[in-house]
TrEMBL record:
One of its GO terms (biological process) is cell division. Residues 33-58 are annotated as: Disordered. Residues 33-46 have a biased composition (Basic and acidic residues). Residues 91-125 form a coiled coil. It comes from Lachnoanaerobaculum umeaense. This is Cell division protein FtsL. The chain crosses the membrane at residues 64-87. Keywords: Cell cycle, Cell division, Coiled coil, Membrane, Transmembrane, Transmembrane helix.
């Protein structure tokens, strides 16, 4: 039995049986009991030892087929991981390119809107009317001079004959 490095107080009875108490950090006494040792014969011990060795051999040894199966499984997992990482990186780069293109599109839309606003400021409809009527001698058409065409299936009118006068 292990020796206890604790303060021991012993009370021996007259019967010859020794009881030992020990104190561990407070005033409560705890009984230290001895576990009786069972005597075993050598055969039982050697049988247990042999069964333990057999179990260890069975768990540590691996057949060639198990080794090949594990190797193939590890290879498949490795290929899947590499494929996943490559697809993930392609997706990330595509998302970045899309974001760059979207920001370029937004910039172009802003520039286009600004250009349209500038053009609208320079277009003066009164000036155009004045130049057309005074300089070029243009006049508005009368109702009798307007010829209407029926809309065909297409979006524009094809003229095959001269316009009547």
């Amino acid at each position: 039995m292990k020796e206890v490095n604790k303060k021991k107080q012993g009370i021996k009875r007259k019967t010859g049986v020794g009881t030992e108490y020990y104190i561990e950090g407070n005033a409560v006494r705890k009984v230290e009991t001895q576990i009786p040792q069972r005597e075993t014969d050598g055969n039982e011990f050697s049988k247990k030892k042999k069964s333990i060795r057999k179990r260890q051999e069975n768990t540590t040894s691996m057949s060639f087929s198990h080794l090949m199966t594990m190797s193939v499984a590890m290879l498949v997992v490795l290929v899947l991981c590499v494929n996943y990482i490559s697809i993930q990186s392609k997706l990330t780069s595509t998302i970045r390119q899309t974001q760059i293109k979207e920001s370029e599109l937004e910039n172009l839309k802003n520039e286009n809107d600004a250009a349209e606003a500038d053009i609208a400021l320079y277009v003066d409809l009164d000036h155009i009317y004045d130049v057309a009527t005074n300089r070029l001698g243009m006049i508005y058409a009368k109702k009798s001079q307007v010829i209407t065409y029926e809309k065909t299936e297409s979006e524009y009118v094809r003229q095959f004959e001269d316009i009547p006068k």
